[in-house]
Amino acid sequence: MDMVMKLGMEKAVVVFSKTSCGISHAISTLIRGFGANPTVHELDELPNGHEIEKALMALGCNPSVPAVFIGKEFIGGSNEIMSLNIRGKLKPLLLKANAIWI
Q: Which residue intervals define the domain Glutaredoxin in the entry (predicted)?
C-alpha cells in the first residue's frame, strides 16, 4: 500500500487505470476536460500492476480501477468522481490541488 500512496502523491492528479477499462478512460477524459493533465498508471502495463491492484482494493476500491488521487489525497473511484462532478465540487478540488488554474 505504501507504493500506491507514494505514486498517488507524485502529481496533482493521479489515476490508476487499466487499458481495457472504459470507465477509467471516461474518468481520465472528464478530468482532462477541466484542463488537468492527470498522471495515468495503467496497471495492466506495469510489472507490479497486480500488487498495486491488491493495494487499491485494500484502500476500498472495488472494482480496483479507476482509482483517483487529487491533491495528494485518495478520492476514490468513478462513483466518487462522478458525484463530485455532479455536485460541482470536482473543479474546485482540481483548483485547490493546483491541477488547473482559472
A: 13-75
